[in-house]
Amino acid sequence: MIILGIDPGSRKTGFGCIEKSGKSLKLLGQGVIQLNAKNSMDQRLLELSMGLEKLIKEYGPSILAIEKAFVKNNIQSALRLGETRGAIMVSGARHSLSVVEYSPAEVKKSVAGNGRADKEQLAKMVRLLCGARDLEFETLDASDAISIAVCHALSSGRSPLSAPRRGGKLSRALGLS
Amino acid sequence: MIILGIDPGSRKTGFGCIEKSGKSLKLLGQGVIQLNAKNSMDQRLLELSMGLEKLIKEYGPSILAIEKAFVKNNIQSALRLGETRGAIMVSGARHSLSVVEYSPAEVKKSVAGNGRADKEQLAKMVRLLCGARDLEFETLDASDAISIAVCHALSSGRSPLSAPRRGGKLSRALGLS
Predict the structure, then answer these.
(1) Which residue is closest to A95 within chain B, CA to CA?
(2) Which residues pair with A26 in a beta bridge?
(3) B175 CB-contact burial (10 Å; exposed 0-12 / middle 13-18 / buried 19+)
(4) What is the set of active-site residues of B?
(5) Number of domains in chain B
(6) How confident is the model at residue A50 (pLDDT cuts 50, 70, 90)?
(7) Which of A64, A157, B66, B82 has the least C-beta neighbours within 10 A?
């Protein structure tokens, strides 16, 4: 199963693509789709949609895992984030990917065993789960996107740490929570 | 110039397509793209995107005129409306349409000469401008979408009532404002 994780943003959208085979996870690629802030919103969404298509063709994912929207008190930001999410979801659906959503707390709980885990704890677990201790994250957006993809891998069927509870135990054993 | 006006909604998206040639406006089609509320959001956005593509192929517009988002105090509604708008904008941009936006007040001012015109005043002016006194609007969403398309026709270049101010005079002369 190949999972494309997406951290949506109207200027920078992070991506991380992982492959789950049996019990192992492998990072296939990561990065950021950078949008030209000088362009009109429809042109930015077109760039985003074409960037995603390229990734879908390159990695052949069957799942698009996207961060659930979280906006506090700002209607304009919510509208803008919604527009970005709409373009991403429709790109996934057009290519017959299953689109799934996870909140930041769900990602933290599933990956690090603790809904309030910090970036560092999350990063350690992602490295451990992907079997790449020296894995460098290209940007914060990419690292968030990889975590979302890993969250889906852990949440679906058998996985190295299939249920968040087991992840919790392991992360506690590792002193991460 | 063929203009596809869109009134976005996550359950029902209204459309109205008009042709402007010289000084005359003609309504080519109107209706609603109804989305299945039981489907997941990504599937709804896919239905919407495919519905729009069908309209673009049928009418061959060069402009997609969309209502500017207006949401008061509800973050979830803003996100949802944003998602719908994102899917619409990216559909337009994919087919090389120019995407333009007008607020409800801009539409009312441009079409009826008064930013606070009511539905009835707007409907009268749309009928008059399209030269179709017996024009029936299929639904409220479709009528809003036609008004947005007419607004763009009036706002771009020479038109029957090229500037909002002139529209204002005419609508006043007709007792509409």
Answers:
(1) B46
(2) A19
(3) exposed
(4) 7, 67, 141
(5) 1
(6) very high
(7) A157
Q: Which pLDDT does position A146 carry in this prediction?
A: 95
Spell out which residues of chain B touch residue A56, defining contact as CB-CB under 8 Å: none
φ/ψ (deg, to 5) at A90 = -70, -30
Distance CA B147, CA B120 (A): 12
HSE-up (13 A, CA, CB side) for residue B177: 23
pLDDT tens by residue, B102-118: 999 999 999 999 888 88
- Shortest Cα distance, chain A CAs vs residue B13, angstroms: 15
Tell me how far apart the alpha carbons of residues B5 and B151 are, in angstroms, rounded to a whole number. 9
- Check if the beta carbon of residue A7 is closer than 8 Å to that of residue A69: no
Name the E strands within chain B.
2-7, 12-21, 24-34, 63-67, 98-102
Nearest to B93 among A46, A69, A91 (CB): A46
Cβ neighbours of B71 in A, within 8 Å: 75, 78-79
B111's tokens? 């079409």
SS3 A65: strand
Give the residue carrying structure tokens 């929570």.
A177
Whether A10 shows a pLDDT value over 90: the answer reads: no
For residue B41, which residues of chain A lie inside 8 Å, CB to CB?
A: 89, 99
Q: What is the mean pLDDT of chain B?
A: 86
Nearest CA in chain A to B80: A82
Pairing outcome for strands B24-34 and B12-21: antiparallel
Instruction: Report the C-alpha gap between B111 and A135 in whole angstroms.
Output: 59
Q: How much is the ipTM here?
A: 0.82
Is A141 annotated in the active site?
yes
CATH number for the domain that contains residue B143: 3.30.420.10
CA atoms within 13 A on the CB side of A125: 37
Residue-wise pLDDT tens digits, B44-63: 999 999 999 999 999 999 99
- Give DSSP secondary structure letters for B95-127: TTPEEEEE-HHHHHHHHHS-TT--HHHHHHHHH
pTM of the model: 0.84
